[in-house]
Structure of Uracil phosphoribosyltransferase:
Amino acid sequence: MGNVLVLDHPLIQHKLTHIRDVGTGTKEFRELVDEVAGLMAFEITRDLPLEEVTIQTPVAEARMKVIAGKKLGLVPILRAGLGMVDGILKLIPAAKVGHVGLYRDPETLLPVEYYVKLPSDVEERDFIVIDPMLATGGSAAAAITSLKSRGAKSIKLMCLVAAPEGIELIHKDHPEVDIYLAALDEKLNDHGYIVPGLGDAGDRLFGTK
Ligand code: URA
């Protein structure tokens, strides 16, 4: 079963509290999400393999470590996932960015894919799927299925806040996927919002309502 890692670094928790606060406006919300995404990326990339290279310092020749040419791919789920991309790219500027767009069919309530664009070398990349709010988990599970059907072999899921229901669905549909969170909240309410959550992440990021 994939791991669930709650990244409880004090900086992440402090910023997340301000993100949650209903009094935080769009500009600050966007900046904080960007910062938290970067801090989370720091942890998510902890297992990147290193290799040794020879360099010349001003004093001596030395064998030192660099990241071993690992190919990463970020896949934000539209639209709220976009809010976390830049913060990660600041740390991993060479990562390629794919996009997955899904909507919920009003009759079946199931996610339907309306847009997918991924880097061409899907099979060689390690992907981080980005879904800030893992509520029922339906969109994230469908996005991961979509990546796998196109040949992706290595996928992690990154969320800001999750509900237990979402974690359960990912475990069921994609038991090998590790899930990285800033917080695991209590439950979903009758409208599908995470409680206490932070409201609608897309609306708060983009100032829509
Ligand atoms: N999507 C959101 O943006 N917020 C929630 O609480 C649940 C799903």
